Backbone:
């Protein structure tokens, strides 16, 4: 993706590097725990099986895409604002990923929650 944006990056193992900056994506920062948390929530929540599948597909697509955006933005921050890199990496993006996981979870629960049957107090005559 960075190369498509004009950056001449190279990948060596888990390190993305260019003449301007290098970033290494370690397993602790790869972000799978957010997707795992969301998928566990979807599987544990009482809903229709097809809605669970839809939730897992949504979470397994959106959260890794957000993490890809995080990695790309951290690369550009490292190139243009190296003094902000640590704060963006450890505080801002961590908060964004946690918040996005929670928001996605709340939206999915609201969408997939069984609707209660409406009871009528009226008596048929």
Residues:
């Amino acid at each position: 993706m960075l190369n498509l944006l004009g950056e001449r990056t190279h990948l060596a193992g888990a390190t993305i590097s260019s003449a301007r900056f290098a970033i290494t994506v370690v397993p602790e920062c790869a972000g799978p725990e957010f997707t795992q948390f969301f998928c566990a929530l979807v599987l544990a929540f009482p809903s229709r099986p097809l809605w669970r599948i839809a939730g897992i597909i949504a979470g397994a697509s959106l959260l890794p895409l957000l993490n890809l955006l995080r990695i790309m933005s951290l690369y550009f921050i490292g190139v243009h604002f190296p003094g902000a890199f640590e704060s963006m990496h450890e505080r801002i993006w961590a908060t964004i990923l946690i918040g996005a996981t929670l928001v996605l979870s709340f939206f999915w629960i609201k969408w997939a929650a069984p609707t209660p049957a409406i009871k009528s107090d009226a008596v048929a005559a």
